[in-house]
Amino acid sequence: MKQANRGISWFWMSWGIFVSGLLVMAFGIALMIRAEAGSAPWDVFHIGLYQQFGLTIGTWSIIIGFVIIGATSLLERSWPKLGAFLNMLLVGVFIDIYLWLPFLKTPDHLPGKLVMLISGILIMGYGIGLYIAADRGAGPRDSLMLVLTERTGWKVQRIRLSMEMVVLFLGWLLQGPVNIGTLLFCITIGPIVGYSLPQCKAFVARLIERGGRNEDIYKRKIRINDYDGVSKKAR
After folding, report:
1. Residue 224 CB contacts under 8 Å (≥ 6 apart), including other chains
2. CA gap 117, 36 in Å, rounded
3. Rounded to the nearest 5°, which phi and psi values hold at 20?
4. Domain ranges of the chain
5. In terms of pTM, does the model score above 0.85?
6. Rounded distance, CA 201 to CA 223, Å?
C-alpha cells in the first residue's frame, strides 16, 4: 500500500512497532550483558565507562548517543530526527529496566551463558529488523555511519567496521567485557538482520494492509450493524 493511503492509524501503528522493536533489541542487549561472555562493541564501550565512572550502562548509552546525535547534526547542519532521538533515549532506559529485573541473572555454568548469549544476539537481530521495518528513522550510530559514508565516499561496511573497531578498542582500554561473545556478535549480527529484516517488513506490510481495509469502508467486510447514515440497518 502506498504511503499516501496509510492514514492516521498507520502513523501511530508505525511508532508502536518502532518502540516495540527497541524493546526487543534492548532485551537482546541485556541478555548479552547478563551472559557475561562478551558484548557487542558499543556495549563493551558503555560497560567500560560504567565500570570506570559509575552511573548505569543505559545512562552511558544515552550520553554517548547524545554526543553522536550532536556530531551528526553538526556534520549535516540540521536538527536531529525524532526517530534517532527516541532511539537514543528509549534503548538506554529499556536496558537499565531489563538489567534491574531480579530474575534476569547470569547463569552459573558455561552452557547456560552460551544459551543466553546466543539468544541475546538472535533477539537483538529481530529487534533491529522490527524497528527498521517501522521506517521511523535510523538510530544515532547508524545515522552517523550514513553521514560519514556520504562525506568520505567509503563503503558502508568499511565505515561501520571502522567505527566499531574504534569503540571496541576504547571499551577494551576501559576494561569492558571483550570475549567470545563479542566476536560471535560481529560475525553473526549482519546475517541475522539480513534474515530477520525481510520477515519484519512482511509482518509490517500485513499490518498496513489490514489497517487499510479497516479504514476503507469499501474494502472491509459489511457487518450486520453497519449504517449508511440514511437507510435502515443492513439486513
Report:
1. 233, 234, 235
2. 8
3. -60, -40
4. 3-215
5. no
6. 30
CA angle at 132 for the pair 129 and 138, rounded to the nearest 5°: 135
- Give the pLDDT confidence of 79-134 residue by residue, as tens digits: 877 878 888 899 999 999 999 999 889 998 999 999 999 999 999 989 988 888 88
Question: 21: which 3 cell numbers?
Answer: 522493536
Q: HSE on the CB side for 82, CA within 13 Å? A: 5
C-alpha cell at 109: 555454568
CA–CA–CA angle 178, 179, 180 (5° rounding): 145
Amino acid in the structure at residue 19: V
Gap between the Cα atoms of 3 and 25, Å rounded: 26
**Per-residue buried b or exposed e for 206-229, using 16+ beta carbons within 10 Å of the residue's own CB:** ebbeebbeeeeeeeeeeeeeeeee
